[in-house]
Amino acid sequence: MKKFVSVMAAGALAFAAFGASAASSHALAAQAKIQMPQARQIALRAYPGKIVKEELEKESGGSGLRYSFDIKNARGTHEVGVDAKNGKVLENSVEGADND
After folding, report:
1. Fold (CATH) for 33-100
2. What's the whole-model pTM score?
3. For the segment 71-93, what is each residue's pLDDT rounded down to a tens digit?
4. Are the beta carbons of 50 and 33 closer than 8 angstroms?
5. Sequence spans of domains, the chain
6. How far is the C-alpha of 79 from the C-alpha of 91, rounded, in Å?
């Protein structure tokens, strides 16, 4: 019974964390003037390839709110950061090179 309760408690915490994450993602998206589809186009112009990861995050530099894309092509994987308020490319570097 204790094991069942522990498993249920862990599941509830995971669900709550996911809900909080989703809520904070919506709050960040509401602050963005540039929407994800437009940011994708900007990022792919900066480094053509296939987007393998994308997120909207608070990070220093620019307006403090950016879309971060990992883009892969034949030359490797780059991280491209696009300011979510003005669409400016803030970062275009080899993935793993001085990344958080």
Report:
1. Nuclear Transport Factor 2; Chain: A, (3.10.450)
2. 0.71
3. 999 999 999 999 999 999 999 99
4. no
5. 1-31, 33-100
6. 7
